[in-house]
Amino acid sequence: MGNMQIYGTALAGLERAQAQVETAANRIAKASAPPPGSTPAGDQVDLSQEITGLLVAREAFEANLAVIDSVSELDQHLIDILA
């Protein structure tokens, strides 16, 4: 697998992580507490599930950034060797 393919795979992973963050953030933003004494209506947001999703997305983001950093470092070493 060439370095460009690795970069592309890592970038796709970053985009997926970003989409996960945006989805969770939208769901959290729509969450509202019902007034005291009333029953909740409509769709309920499981905040613990959304926070877990944010944490998973953060880990995926960090992992993909680490891949990009590693490949970039390898590219730099290759340039140094060839120069």
Description:
The protein is an all-alpha fold and 83 residues long. The protein has two helices and no strands. It has helices at 3-30, 47-82.
Relevant terms:
83 residues; mainly alpha; 2 helices; 77% helix; 0% strand
Task: Produce the secondary structure layout.
Elements: H1 3-30, H2 47-82
Helix pairs in contact: 1-2
Strand content: under 5%
The chain-level mean pLDDT equals 88
- The end-to-end distance, rounded to whole angstroms, is 23 Å
Structural category:
mainly alpha
Beta strands, count: 0
Specify the helix fraction band. Answer: over 70%
> How many DSSP H or I helices?
2
Main β-sheet description: none
Shape: rod-shaped
Could you provide a short overview of the structure?
With 83 residues, the chain is mainly α.
